[in-house]
Amino acid sequence: MDEVRITGGFWAIRQQVNGEATLGHALDWMDRLGWTGNFTAAANGVESRERKGREFADSEVYKIVEAMSWEQGRFPSDELNARIETVTGTFTAAQDDDGYLNTAFGRHWQRPRYDDLAWGHELYCAGHLLQAAVARTRTAGDGPLLEVARRAADHICEVFGESGQGICGHPEIETALVEFARLAGEQRYLDQAALFVERRGYRSLPAHEFGWSYFNDDVPVRKATVFRGHAVRALYLACGAVDVAVETGDDDLLEAVAAQFDRTWARRTHLTGGMGSRHQDEAFGDDFVLPADRAYAETCAGVATVMLAQRLLLATGDSRYAGVVDRVLHNVIATAIGDDGRSFFYANTLHQRTTTRANGDSERLDVGGGPRAPWFEVSCCLPNLARLLASLSSYLVTADDTGLRVHQYADCDVETHLADGRPVGLRVRTSYPEGGEVAVRVTRSGGEPWSISLRVPGWATGAVLTVDDERRPVAPGEAVLTREWAVGQEIRLELPTQPRFIWPDPRIDAVRGCVAVERGPLVLCAESLGENDLDALRVWTGQDPEQTGDGAVVRARFEAPLDSSWPYGDPSGRPGTPVAVHLTPYHRWARRGPSTMRVWLPTT
Question: How far apart are alpha carbons 26 and 3 in whole angstroms?
Answer without folding.
Answer: 28
